[in-house]
Design brief:
It is a single chain. By secondary structure, the protein is mostly helical. The chain has one domain. 69% of the residues lie in helices and 1% in strands. The protein contains 14 helices and 2 strands, in the order αααααβααααβααααα. It has a two-stranded antiparallel ribbon. It starts with 9 loop residues before the first helix and ends in a 12-residue tail after the last helix. The C terminus is likely disordered.
């Protein structure tokens, strides 16, 4: 426990405790619509944190991360519908499959010197292969979609992930907290130091004796496996899966916008970015509905404007300057907060 909070300022701990306490208490005051919005925010915060391991920590840009969400979703959904396997059991093969696919992508890229934008294109290609493949995979519905049976929304069946929005909210909140703590520990581990060295200068890291192939592979496999867990919740919350919806590149872009806007390589960045993007987008949608305005694609335009503003005025993301404003400079993220 002492190691967990080593180097964290008291003010940062207090703020963190208050923040997560407020999230834990939110369902007591929020209506159903707001709960759904918070679920969406937590989903993107969790998935963004997982992507951050690959890009923010190890410097490997993935633009096809929806691949792992889709694999987690389809594997657990198929096991549940076809064989009655609980998603909490089905998530283990999902983690293995997603991690194995990540390992294949990483091996092909790192063994043959594919890096930078070419690695990003490779991740897009695999996500597109999966989208086209599942589009023609009749066993899980193909292009017509795959649907999970819904017995009720009132009684919570935690073992089978069937139940109310509140149940999914607290599950995602727990996942987000766990991902935050895990990333904090990873940053302070030997692997974390090696990843940051690789991110800053692969050549210098290799000259220091770091096995950059091995540690890049660790980052890719870990990020892929953890992201697939988000896909499990996605499948059982929405109860329907369409390849065009799950694997599309637009899904990958949505996953990575939070960390980019919040601050790549920081712990709070994915959370701050998810709250800003989803919260403001939903607020804009409500205002436009009240005004009777219906503009298709407005959400994507809003995301683009946010990204443009951050790139122009806050190239490091929203969190680093916000952290200074809050007086939290002396915390865990001396190296990447």
């Amino acid at each position: 426990m002492k190691y967990l909070f080593e180097g964290v300022s008291r003010s940062a701990l207090v703020l963190l405790a208050l923040f997560f306490a407020a999230l834990a208490a939110a369902p007591m005051f929020a209506n159903d619509y707001l709960i759904v919005v918070l679920i969406t925010i937590l989903y993107f915060a969790y998935a963004g944190q997982c992507w951050n391991i690959m890009m923010g920590f190890a410097g490997q840009l993935s633009l096809g991360h929806a691949l792992y969400v889709g694999l987690g979703a389809y594997v657990t959904a198929a096991l549940y519908v076809k064989f009655g396997v609980s998603p909490w059991i089905g998530l283990f093969p999902a983690l293995v499959i997603a991690g194995a696919v990540g390992a294949v992508i990483g091996f092909l890229a790192f063994r043959f010197g594919v890096s930078g934008v070419y690695f990003a294109i490779l991740t897009i290609a695999f996500a597109e292969f999966a989208r086209i493949g599942f589009d023609h995979f009749a066993w899980v519905g193909g292009a017509a979609g795959y649907f999970l049976p819904v017995a009720n929304y009132t009684q919570n069946d935690f073992f089978n992930l069937r139940g109310s929005q509140h149940m999914f909210y607290y599950i995602l909140l727990a996942m987000t907290v766990a991902a935050f703590v895990l990333c904090h520990l990873l940053l302070r581990s030997r692997a974390g130091y090696y990843w940051l060295a690789i991110r800053e200068s692969p050549e210098a890291a290799e000259a220091l004796g770091i096995n950059i192939f091995r540690y890049k592979m660790y980052a890719v496999v870990l990020s892929a496996a953890l992201t697939s867990l988000g896909g499990v919740i996605f499948a059982f919350f929405y109860n329907n899966l369409f390849p065009e919806q799950v694997f599309h590149i637009s899904r990958s872009i949505e996953l990575i916008l939070g960390p980019i806007i919040g601050g790549i390589g920081t712990l709070f960045g994915p959370i701050v970015g998810a709250f800003l993007l989803t919260g403001l987008a939903e607020g804009l949608r409500e205002v436009m509905l009240r005004l009777g305005i219906d503009l298709p694609g407005m959400k994507q335009v809003f995301y683009g404007i946010c990204l443009l503003l951050v790139v122009m005025f806050l190239p490091d993301g929203v969190w680093p300057p916000l952290k200074k404003k809050l007086g939290l400079d002396r915390d865990t993220e001396k190296r990447g907060s």
